[in-house]
Each structure stands twice: as structure tokens, then as C-alpha cells.
Amino acid sequence: MTRIPVPLTQFVVKMHSRCDLACDHCYVYEHADSSWRSRPKVIGDGILAKAAERIGEHAVAHRLSAVRVVLHGGEPLLAGPDRLRRAAEAFRAALPPGCALDLRIHTNGVLLSRAFCALFAELDVKVGISLDGDRAANDRHRRFADGRSSHPQVLRAVGLLNEPEYRHLFAGLLCTIDIENDPVAVYRALAELRPPAVDFLLPHATWEEPPKRLPGGGEAPYADWLLTVHRLWEADGRPFAVRTFESVHRTQRGLSSLTESLGLEPSDLAVLETDGTFEQADSLKTAYDGAPVTGMNVFAHSLDDLARHPGIAARQSGLAGLSAACRACPVVRSCGGGLYAHRYRADTGFDNPSVYCGDLMTLINGIAGSGGSDPERDSRPAAVPAQGGEPLLSAALAPAQLDELARGYGSADTVAALGRSQLALTRAMLAAAWDASGQGRAGAWELLSQLDGSAPAAVDAVLTHPYARAWAARRLAGDLAVGLGPLAALAAAAAVRAGRGDAVAVPVRGGWLHLPTLGRVAVPDGEALVIGRADGFEVRAADGSVRTTLDQPLRRVRLAGGWTVALEDLDPLRDSHDHPVAERLSEAELLGWTGALREAWELLGRDLPGYAEGIRAGLATVTPLRPGPTGRDVSSAARQAYGAVGIARPATAPTLALLLAHEFQHVKLGAVLDLFDLHDRADDRLYFAPWRPDPRPLEGLLQGTYAHLAVTEYWGTRTAAYDGLAGAAAGRARAQFALWRRYTAEAVERLAESGALTGLGVRFAEGMRESVEPWLAVPLPAAAEREAERARRERDQLRPVEA
């Protein structure tokens, strides 16, 4: 049997073949294909069960790590909650261990209710809503059969999804473009709904049925419409994901597209109709009657059979499958010929450029020349897409979560979302660094890829280690001296955790074999073979000796409430901080750290409860640093080590608590800056922070200000604890509070007045202002204010005169 070129990972399952709206631009009911008339209204349970079985066997055969299933229609909510439940449970139960299910439903929103939302929350079903903009734009096409508006019902549905208990279900909005609608009004109406993502869709058209054009509307009206939206989106700081815009940015620098309508990536999508037949992409219904037909069904054919269908294969052939005109086009790698259905012409089939060819070229060139694709940001590796899905970094945070972070805080859920985005970035950077090595799919990388399919939890446990991507960051920065050994060590640690008997060769230098997240084994230099066993591991050294235990395990401290922190004093890449790291802690030093961390954690819970929850959710590692000069506390957060802070153990637990909170602020903000541009990266001016004598780039001022939100609150709560009390400790707390609230407030205003913040950055600064302003109103003794002023004057004397 011929091996299929690309496995199928995305499945559109038609739950109901009718709709409660009569949208006049619908490709199912209003275009060339009329097959819906002869199909059952509702999909049968037997068909659902067999479809789940087919997807499960396909996932096993091709070792898929994830599949996406979209419950669709018609209008899928017409199928009713019981059938939707049975569908969700069948698909989830059919997948093998290690294969994740991304389950979604696409609805017009009219029937969405609180009961449906509760069901989807239980079943983990993400919800996408069709909405074309404000009421005037939406009512141009999306109406009931009697002409009534559907807009109020759709807004009610979006409102439900924006409620805190259901917000995590909100997948985004789908907006079909009509060039008669005002793009500014459409964008503003959608943005006000705070969607995590918006897909702007070109209306389906072919060379036989060309898209609408307006008199005097220019040669590329759809590009002009989208470029207007793009300018607004950039000016607002990209407040939500837009796959079309992001795909253009990505494909221009050689990365994959996020949508089938752009780029050269092979399609991996199939459709299951209510009668159990398999079809190609729904968009083909706009070409001619029967265009999506495959002649296959879920009972007689496997998904491998379907993947071999000529129509499916045609959408997987990349550049070779495009017309001669497309292959010669300078923007073909971004455009990809456009959506396959939009190429159709009766006499030449699909061997044509898109009917939107001129619009696509204008759009791509317009985005490329807009300045929106920032060179520094876009040189960073993009998120690795899950199989069959958009990148994990897209819409990683809900707007409310970003606002929460802007105020300095971060709940467990919000910090966990940051962690997921950082894991995706780590995966992308590792892949980019390995690709640049020219080694291909071999050795450690091949094993890591295999384990990612069969034992993903083991891989995730290793890749969430804070220093896992330090190797990739150094390689991508041009430091080839770091070698490929650290990647082999990651694969070896994953193999040990998986315990399947996998083996990988790891270079040994300096007499130690390091297994990230586990510890290290003393073995002679050379190449050691690490084998992960169900009951442990085996290391076969270059001299023939065999070791089965760790000589120096990674040590962890268990804190109150079950939180565990690793004391990382082994990893060779822990030197990512700006200060020298400590060597292996002695038993006495370990005991000192253990006691200090336990006391500091209790203090954080008491003095900084709004910060403690996020620290617990995101801080996994403390790396001991060497002590600094006498009287100086030393601490650090490394941008490429999410989840870790470096600290030289201070003299007191309260100071350790403050340093933990301060540095984790840097960790959080670094993760936010990996997701969003809060400031103009082209701004090369230097700015004075109130607490430093030397000017710094804007990002340095932003980082310092954000960290000092926690410092201000720390001293504010300490001051409140000393209310009415005298003594040196109380006086010091009040003076520190007076100083840091003033410094932090001044820094927020300096950021806001810089003129270099993006729209999202301005919103972020406003959140910081909201956090610090209440502390400014707390009354303090005159002595505390005088002490703060004295400290300020001393600092100012060290500073050169500002221009």
C-alpha cells in the first residue's frame, strides 16, 4: 500500500446539515454545490462512533501528538446537547495516550446558551463565533429567513463567552469581508468584544463567479480593506491574533503559514458529512456542484485511503501544484496561490492563480512595507504549531489576564498560560537551533521527536526546565562552542523519564553526565550511552563501566501547601544569569537554603498574597548565586530561563521574600514581551530610572518599573503591619515605602510620556498606574518622607545632568 505523504490531523464533522439563519453569502447553501438537500439533518450515533474509531486508528498509525476536531454544520447547536456530548466523548475516548484532542465548535451563536457553555466547559470544547462586525455590517448578510437581524443574539453569545467562567472557551470570531462595510467600524466593533482571535475571511469566489467590486473602488479593494484593518491592529498593539496578518509576517521570513488560504504548507484537513461520507474542504462547494466529493465514506474507507485521494493530494503538493504564473511570482511563498477553491475556472480547473491574485499581492507587499513586521521581534523563533492547529503562542492570554498582569499580579491560571506560551517558544527555539545545525532528523533530535509523540509528558517535564532553552538561545546567537551535547542531555533525561528502553549517546566533558531535571552521574569523559528503563536508567560509559544511580541528584525543597522548588546547583547552563553561580551546595548550605525558603514563602503569603499565587504557579527553580560584595544583595532573572531566578542567599528571610517577588516580576514581564510588543523596539533613546544613576533603554525602564510594583506593595504591607508601632524596623519600613512608591509612580509616568509605547503598552502602563496610585494616598509620618527625600537626593547626585 502506498505510504501517504501527509497524515490528516484536522477534521470537520458536520453535526447538523441545516441552519437557523439564511446568510446570503453561505458557501453551503448559496453557492454551486447542492448536496446538502439530500443529506440527513443530523449525524447518526453510529457514524460518530465509526468516525472516532477512524481518527483514533489514524492517530496511532502516524503517531500523532494532537488532532483537531471541529463540530460544524449548518448550525451544529441544532444537533442538541446530548448528541454534542456523545460526539465529544467518542472522539476523546478514541485517541491513544499521548495524543491530545483540540475540540472546537463553530456556531453562528444564535442558540448559544448558558447550558451549552456549561456543557462545553465540562467537555473542554472551544467555541468560535461568526460575526461580520457592527450591526449594519452583520445584517448585510447574516439574517434570519424572515429578514430579522441576528446581531443581538450573537452579541449575547459573545457576552456569555466573555464571562470569567467561560472565557477560556472563547476561540475567537470569524468575520467574512464585505467591501461595502466600513473596515474601521468593523474592526472597532470586533475589538470592543475583546476576542482572543479574529479571522478575516475573503468571501468565497471563483473565476466563474468573481468577487464583488465597487465602482471606483480601486484595483485591489479587498487588500485595501484589510490593510486599513492591519494599520489599526498594529496601532493598537495587536490586541488579538489575526491569522492572515501573522501568516504574512511568518511566511516572509520562511516560517509556516497559519491558514490554508496562504503559504505553501500541505493541507491536512478532511470533512465528514452527516451521511457519513468523506469530503474535501468545504470551500470547494463554491466551485461547482460535487467539487468536494471523494466517493468515500467512514464505514468503507480509512483515513489513509482518504489521504490518497487525488483531490486531497492536489492540496498537499506545495509549489509544484501551482500554476506556472504562480510559480514565477515573487510573493508565491507568502501567497501560496491563495485558497485552492478560489483558483477555479471552468476550462482550466484549478490550474490558475487565485481570483484574488491582485488583492493578495497588494496585501502582502503592503504588510511587508508597513513597518509592522518588526525585525528584532520577527527574528525570534515563532511558536511551533500543534499538529493541525494554529501556533500555541497565538492568543495565549485573554485580555483580562493581560490587564491583571499589567497591574503587577497574576493568578495561577494566568501564570500557567504564560508557562504554556514559554514551553511553545522553547520548542520553537530548540527546533530552529537544531535545524541550523544541519544534522537533520538524527540521533538525539529523532529520539526527542519520537518521545514527543509517545511520551509527551516526559518531554514536557524536561522542556519546561528553565535552562532547557539556554542551549538553543546560545546556538541561535552564534555561540557554536556550546556544541550539541546539551540537546542530547535533554533527550536522555526525557528517555529516562519515559522509561521505554530508548537509548541515546551523550558527550561527557569534565567527568560528569548531566541529566536535566534529574541530576548528574560521575563518568569518564567521552561518549556515554544513556538507556531509560522502566525501573530507572543505565549509563554505559566510554570505559565500559555501567552506572545505574545518580551521584548528585537535583535537590528540591518542599514548601507549605505542597509547592516544591528545585535548588539548581548542577546544570552547566545555569550560568545564564548576570552573576557567577554557586557550586554544589554543601549539606549545611542546603539546610540554610531550605529554612530560608520556607520562611520566605510564609512571608510572601502574608505580605504579598496577590503575588504569591503566581509565584507558586510559575517559579520552579532557584539557582544559588555567589555572594556579592559585603552588604550587597545579589539576584537575577534570565530572559531565556522562564521559571527560574538566581539569588545569593541573603542574611534574612524577609529580604529573600522580597528578592523572590522582585525577580519573578522580571520573569513574568519577559514572558509577556515574548507575546506582545509593548514598546517600539526601534526606539534607541536612553531613559533614566529614578532609582539608577545611569540611563537605560526603554525596556530596562519598563522591567525595573514592573519589578518595583511588587517592591512598593511589599513595603506598603510591611508599613501597615507596623501601624502605631515605633522602633528602627518600623521606621525603616516606612522610609522604604515612601521611597519606592514615589520612585515607581515617577517611572510609570516616564514610561507613559515616552511616546514609544505601543497601544497595548499604553494600556499596560495604565494598569501599572492603577496599581501604584492607591499606595500614594497612604499617609506617612513626615520623618519617613524626609528620609525618602534624602535618599533620592543622594541618588540624584550620582546622576549626570539630563538633557
Automatic annotation (TrEMBL):
Protein keywords: Iron, Iron-sulfur, Metal-binding, S-adenosyl-L-methionine
Protein name: FxsB family radical SAM/SPASM domain protein
InterPro entries assigned: AKG_HExxH (IPR026337), Aldolase_TIM (IPR013785), rSAM (IPR007197), rSAM_sf (IPR058240), rSAM_SPASM_FxsB (IPR026335), Sulphatase_maturase_rSAM (IPR023867)
This protein's record includes keyword Iron: yes
Coiled coil: none
Entry-linked Gene3D superfamilies: Aldolase class I
Occurrences of domain Radical SAM core (ranges): 5-238
One family name in Pfam for this protein: Radical_SAM
Keyword S-adenosyl-L-methionine included in the entry's annotation: yes
Native species: Kitasatospora cathayae
Top-level taxon of origin: Bacteria
Phylogenetic classification of the source organism: Bacteria, Bacillati, Actinomycetota, Actinomycetes, Kitasatosporales
